[in-house]
Amino acid sequence: NAIREDLKSMSFEEIMKLKEQLGAKVYKEAVLGAQSSRNQLRKPKPKSELKRLNKNRPREMSSRRQVPFLGAEQRTEKKITTSTRDPRFDEKSGTYNIETFKKNYQFVSQIRQREVGQLKKQLDEVEDPEEKHKIKDTMQRLINKNVEDKKWHSKQKKLNKEKAYIQKKHNEGHEPHYFTKKERRAKELVAQFEQLKSAGKLNKHLEKRRKKNAAKDRKRIGIA
Question: Sign of the C-alpha dihedral, residues 184, 185, 186, 187?
Fold first, then answer.
């Protein structure tokens, strides 16, 4: 209080010189008091709430802070989604080996065979012609798949047998005969001919091939 009384009798210029000599911090503590000066410094600034004139209007935002892109109300946390992995197109699954794949999934042919038997029973019970047609198509697809797998395994056995023959000739010190694609195809046709002949299906197969070739010829020369 005594300091304040002395300051009252001083001119403004003298007060400013005194403030420069003591420093702003010491001057404030001397005039206002140490405790009140600290409290004044620590006192938080009151937040100015920006009120809306109408509840349906958008809230007015301060220009001192950057407004979020979508606004606080529309921002939602991103959901963590588990990514599914397809082993057919994933490098982590390794390279595709058809021989290993066919051997590992050879049991699928037995499952298809059982499904064909179940569809045959179902075909006898169904009376709707459209439903019968669908069942027959499904049966034919399963049978064709098994026929393709059987052909593939038979072809692989012949190739393995050919490789063993070549290796044997090498071990004996002889030059082996390497079969060409044409020779392999000719051997396959002979084996197929003998198989159809023994099963009694040769004439039916030849008739089917004759009709197929005739249809190709008609298409080639433009006859419907």
Answer: positive
